# Entry
Amino acid sequence: MAPDPGPGEVHPRVTVVVPTLAADETLSDCLESLDNQTFSDFEVIVVDNSGRRAVTPRGRVRVIANDRNVGFGAAVNQAFRDSRAPFLAVLNDDATAHPHWLEALLAAIEPRPDVGMCAPQIGLAGDGRLDSAGMLLCLDGSSKQRGHLESPDSYARPQEALLPSGCAAFYRREMLEEIGLFDESFFLYCEDTDLGLRARWAAWECLYVPDAVVEHRYSHSAGKASALKAYYVERNRLFLVVKNFPMPDLLLAPFYSLARYFWHAVLAMQGRGKAAEFQRAGNPGSRLALYVLRANLELVRRFPALWKQRRLRKQRLTTKQFRRLIRRFSISPRQVAAL
# Structure
C-alpha cells in the first residue's frame, strides 16, 4: 500500500491522520494537542480536503492537499497508503487529544495481537459529559455513540467495545491490510461502522481505552442535524446493512427502520429528538421523507456492487457468533431517534 522503504529508512510507530475540510482554527488546536503528546514516535498527516491548499507542513506534520473534497474515508485511505507505520490513528480536525492519548492506546493494543482497533474516551468539549465510549448498533443499520451525554465515570475501566468512532480511532495496520480500508463510496458518515463490522466478522477485537482521552466539538464540520448529514446517514446505513448484516437481520432491518421512523415522528411532535433538531435548524420535516426515498433509490442502484462486496468479505465468525455480538452492543430504534 505504501512505497517500499529505502535502505536504512526508519518509520514512525504511529501515523496520525487528520482529515480537514474547514482547515480553520480548530485544526490548529488539534495539531497543537498532538505536539503535546507524551509519546513521540509518530508522524501526522493532514489531508486537506478544502481545495484551498490551506495547510502548510511543519515539524512532524506532512500534508496531502486535494483539489476537492474527496470525502472522509478516501482522505484517511490516502494517508494510510502513504504511511508504513504499524498503527494508524484517526483524529477529527475538531477534536483535541489529551497528552497521554497515543501512549495509552499503544499500551493497550501492543500486548494484545487479537485487538485490531481501539476506541478512546471521547468527551464533549467544555461539557464534562461523554460523546462516545465506542459505538452501538441498531438493527436497522444506524449506529450511535455508546455513553453519549453520560458521565465518563460510567465508562471508567478498559473493556470490550463493538467498534470505535471515526472521530478518534486507533487501528492496527495488519488488520486493515487484511480486511481493507474505509469504503470510499460512503463519502461521509458510517464508514467507521462499516469498517468496524468488517473487522468483527474477521474476528478482530476492539478495546475501549478510557485513559486515552479526546475532546470533541460535536459535528463542527457538517452540523449537528444538517441536510447533508441526514441524507448520508440514511443512505450509508442501508449500504452497511447489505454489506455486513447476516441474512436474518438483513430481512428484519426494514421493520426496525419503520420503528425508528415512527419514533422520529412521535418525538418530533414533542419537540424532542433528531427530527425535531433537524426542523429547528430551519429544515422542513417533509424533506426527511425525500431523503429516505432518495437513499433507497441509491441503494437499488448500488445493490449489485454492495452484494459483491458482501460475498468477498473476510469471515471467521459464524453467523450465530456475529448476531450475538451485535446484540450485545445494540441500541433500540427509539433510542436512535432520541439521541
Notes: Residues 130 and 152 are 6 Å apart (CA to CA). The chain has two domains: 14-216, 227-338.
